[in-house]
Design goal:
Elements (H helix, E strand, L loop, with lengths): L1 H10 L1 H5 L3 H55 L6 H25 L2 H38 L3 H12 L6 H13 L4 H10 E2 L6 E2 L4 H24 L4
Antiparallel strand pairs: 1-2
Helix pairs in contact: 3-4, 3-5, 3-9, 4-5, 5-6, 5-8, 5-9, 6-7
């Protein structure tokens, strides 16, 4: 057995060059140890990176859900939009935008792209919610005014009887409302644009708010699924 080993070594290039066998073994062991250290370092780095991405994703999801709740609270309210504008700005333009920026930095690009879709959906929800809320506030104010104004009450009654928005009675009714001075010009324009006339009772036109809410939920669910897949991927 020893003779075979010596013969194998003698036949090798190392023997020809006069390199001791022990040195060859040592070099190979050093290389193996170095490779193992590289693999360990790579795995540690990958775990740390995924932990940072997990944290960024959690912060983003919480911020997006908070923004969604704030938008829906605004949608359901009849109070002036100024009451909610600060919270909307903080949740959507502040917290969620900052969390999205971290997602873009941490990556990967696939998750950042999914997060971007959530941001776009939230922006659309905010715009539709603000439009709906302005109309709801103006309409609530006008209905309250109708309780003490015969002119406004008669005008609203006329708007329920018209055949459509092009009916000449629509313009006359809004002129009567404007004459009372109970609505600011912006509120009157909002109602003219977003109130559905010719219906009983008068209704606010749909702004697609509920559809926009579902879009936020769907894009957020897609983002969460993508994060889970990414975190479950094994390091190559």
């Amino acid at each position: 057995m020893q003779t075979e080993a010596i013969a194998a070594l003698a036949a090798s290039g190392a023997a020809v060059l006069g390199v001791p066998a022990a040195l060859i073994v040592g070099v190979r062991q050093a290389r193996a140890a170095h490779h193992a250290a590289e693999v360990t370092a790579h795995a540690t780095h990958d775990q740390a990176r995924k932990a940072a991405r997990r944290e960024a994703a959690v912060v983003f999801v919480l911020a997006a859900e908070s923004a969604l709740d704030e938008c829906m609270r605004m949608y359901e309210s009849k109070e002036p939009i100024e009451i909610y504008s600060a919270d909307i700005e903080k949740r959507v333009l502040g917290d969620t935008s900052r969390a999205f920026t971290v997602m873009r930095i941490e990556g990967p690009a696939e998750l950042a792209q999914k997060a971007k879709k959530v941001m776009l959906a939230l922006s659309e929800l905010t715009l539709r919610g603000a439009r709906r809320q302005r109309t709801a506030h103006a309409w609530h104010h006008l209905k309250q005014s109708a309780e003490t104004s015969d002119v406004i009450s008669a005008a609203l009654g006329e708007l329920t009887e018209v055949s459509g928005p092009d009916d000449p009675r629509v313009r006359a009714a809004w002129r009567a409302v404007a004459g009372t001075g109970v609505l600011a010009p912006g509120m009157e324009h909002t109602l003219r644009t977003h109130l559905r006339v010719g219906s009983h009772p008068l209704l606010i036109k749909s702004t697609g708010m509920l559809d926009a809410r579902e879009e936020v939920r769907e894009t957020l669910a897609a983002f969460i699924d993508a994060v889970r897949r990414h975190l479950d991927e094994k390091t190559p």
